[in-house]
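Researcher: Before we compare anything, I want clean individual predictions. No alignment, no superposition, just each chain on its own. First chain goes here; please echo the sequence and then give the structure tokens.
Model: Echoing the first chain and its structure:
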Amino acid sequence: MVSSAFADRPSKKLVLFDVDGTLTLARQSVSPEMVEILRDLRKKVITGFVGGSDLVKISEQLAVNGSKAVNDFDYGFAENGLTAFKLGKQLESQSFIKFLGEEKYKKLANFILHYIADMDIPIKRGTFIEFRNGMVNVSPIGRNATIAERLEFQAYDKERGLRAAFVKVLREKFADYGLTFSIGGQISFDVFPHGWDKTYALKFVEDEQFEEIHFFGDKTYEARALNFRYYHHHDT
């Protein structure tokens, strides 16, 4: 039974949106047209966003005229739901470093940095490892790359499979760490404990027993992508 918090919605369905490549272009701001569509939709159904980036980055993309993204949606899930909000209030969160421990993380980070140092790619920028609350994001080119450089790397990676090869090595090297290595977006891949992908966010909506849950995202056709698991989850 859906709670009284959503009594004003004609339909008791939850509609969740991926951020990069769906609500916005990768790392760019949401358009005014999209904002209006989302506002109109929220009058009819329950809405939410779910993204792999941290809350700061998602907020930068979705905030409009000083508003907060977590207030413009009924649910907000950053880092695949490891940082979660419902009706503007934060829910429980998870910690990657508490799960893995400092010593194991240090070994993982050192290996990743050495691997990237030996990669022969046209350009490298900065922030090759981005440590987040519930995961680590790894980028061979570096997250400081410009939009144009991101697009160039995406095309280069598509031809050569650099990230796929990198992930294969990590899965074999750290098979006993209980980690998932998942390619997503244009320039990077995420590292997180098994089960902490975007489907993790669904645990926060189970109690509402929505009639249906709809997920809209890009790359739902790629088995290695985060959105694939969400798109094919039995609850959506």
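Researcher: Okay. Second chain, same rules.
Model: Second chain and its structure:
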Amino acid sequence: MGLETEKADVQLFMDDDVYSRHSGVDYGDPEKFVDSSYDRDPHRLNSHLQLGFEDLIAEPATTHSFDKVWVCSHALFEVSKYMLYKFLTVFLAVPLAFAAGILFATLSCLHIWILMPFVKTCLMVLPSVQTIWKSVTDVVIGPLCASVGRCFSSVSLQMSHD
């Protein structure tokens, strides 16, 4: 029940071949299908997700659990994180990629075939609209505002405190 004096170095090695037992082509050999040096996050969009056990759980020097508990909890954390991520990607990656593809295809189509022609048309028509608006402003709105300004220019307000 005292403090254990041994410090255990925790390393977890998982072999993908254990999980790829099926008939047919062996997909467990990544060199056959995927270039292992290929960076799946070249723009570092998810660099903040490199999270480890030590980043989440830490025991101060004054309170330590048993070393075996620490090792087992570390191993359980790594295995559960690995397996749950694989499980979720199997069921969510393809449908979400499909939905994102549909969304971006729709947005691209709308942008290319509706939005940009509308903007270009507005930019072509704007010089004539600008000329018409300037004429309306000079003929109607300008004299109206000048008349109202002259009417109110003779008005003076005095405030008295009773």
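Researcher: What stands out in the second chain?
Model: The helical segments are 30-33, 53-56, 67-153. Additionally, The chain is about 60% helix and 0% strand.
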